[in-house]
């Protein structure tokens, strides 16, 4: 679907935000693909030692899955078309960098070890720190860019979808907040072995996913959530592949495991369902 013209209102998307999204997408493909691929072999690789390869694998899957949506940000012309994905992106960057600094003593660069993980952890901190600075500058510039209020909503969310999206977003937001605030307690609800830093890193991604779903709900317009609708199913599929390949590490008989499956399936259905509804809306109301 072509991007909404600026004549309809809105703040123009700045070049800084578009470049940031592309840069993070490239990093996500490279780093996320590496973490996920190594995890699929059953080996642990990351910036810190994890008790189970599933955690770095899921972190990599989330990076890899969101990359197509981040590349799609370049096709947006107005800020309101991209913010439902860019704002959660800022949560991920700032969150991962913060938890890495808070538990810096757990990183390979502090504890020592094989040269490759040590160099990877050093690069992890450097790249995350650089991207955080760029994100703060790009978003600050975006918010001071003059613009008009967005025009009328072109494809409002159907009423029946809103309660389900509210539950899905709240679930991800809630578990993410718990893992970040009280990782020692909430780590017990993760259906595989995790430590404190694992729990916090997973919490950052869960928080961002919840913020993205609830942000799309607040937009109440499928036409304004194109990049996010691309990222959701990609993230769900990538996470599903890692979970399936490392199924032996998951305590499937536990309640949290069943909840996780439902939440990942919810991301997939939300993304694919949104795409279908958006295509139908575009066909019913073609732009001249």
Protein topology:
Elements: H1 15-40, H2 54-72, H3 83-102, H4 108-111, H5 115-144, H6 161-181, H7 183-186, H8 196-219, H9 226-245, H10 255-284
Written overview of the protein:
The chain has ten helices and no strands. By secondary structure, it is an all-alpha fold. It is globular, with a radius of gyration of 19 Å. It starts with 14 loop residues before the first helix and ends with a helix.
What profile does the largest beta sheet have? none
Averaged pLDDT: 91
Radius of gyration of CA atoms, rounded to a whole number? 19 Å
Number of strands: 0
Distance between the terminal alpha carbons, to the nearest Å?
12 Å
Oligomer description? single chain
Low-pLDDT runs of 5+ residues are 1-7
Helicity, as a percent range: 55-70%
The structure class reads: mainly alpha
Secondary-structure element series = HHHHHHHHHH
Q: Tally the helices: what do you get?
A: 10
**Beta-strand fraction estimate:** under 5%
Outline type? globular
In short:
This protein is mainly alpha-helical and 288 residues long. Helix content is 69%, strand content 0%.
Quickly list its features.
288 residues; mainly alpha; 10 helices; globular
């Amino acid at each position: 679907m072509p991007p909404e013209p600026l004549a309809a209102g809105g703040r123009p998307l700045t070049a800084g935000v578009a470049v940031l999204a592309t840069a993070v997408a490239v990093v996500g493909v490279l780093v996320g693909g590496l973490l996920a691929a190594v995890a699929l072999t059953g080996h642990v690789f990351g910036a810190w030692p994890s008790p189970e390869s599933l955690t770095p694998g899921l972190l990599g899957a989330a990076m890899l899955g969101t990359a197509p949506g981040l590349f799609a940000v370049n096709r947006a012309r107005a800020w309101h078309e991209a913010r439902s994905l860019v704002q959660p992106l800022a949560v991920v960057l700032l969150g991962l960098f913060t938890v890495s600094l808070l538990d810096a003593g757990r990183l390979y660069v502090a504890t020592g070890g094989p040269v490759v993980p040590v160099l990877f952890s050093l690069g992890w901190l450097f790249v995350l720190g650089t991207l955080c600075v760029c994100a703060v500058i790009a978003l600050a510039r975006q918010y001071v860019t003059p613009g008009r209020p967005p025009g009328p909503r072109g494809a409002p969310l159907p009423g029946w979808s809103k309660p389900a999206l509210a539950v899905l977003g709240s679930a991800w937001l809630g578990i993410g907040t718990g893992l970040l605030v009280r990782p020692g307690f909430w780590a017990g609800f993760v259906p595989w072995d995790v430590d404190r830093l694992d729990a916090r890193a997973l919490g950052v991604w869960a928080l961002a996913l919840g913020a993205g779903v609830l942000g799309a709900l607040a937009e109440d317009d499928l036409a304004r959530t194109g990049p996010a609708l691309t990222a959701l199913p990609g993230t769900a599929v990538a996470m599903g592949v890692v979970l399936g390949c490392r199924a032996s590490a998951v305590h499937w008989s536990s309640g949290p495991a069943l909840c996780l499956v439902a939440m990942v399936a919810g991301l997939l259905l939300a993304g694919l369902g949104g795409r279908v509804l958006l295509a139908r809306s575009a066909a019913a109301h073609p732009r001249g």
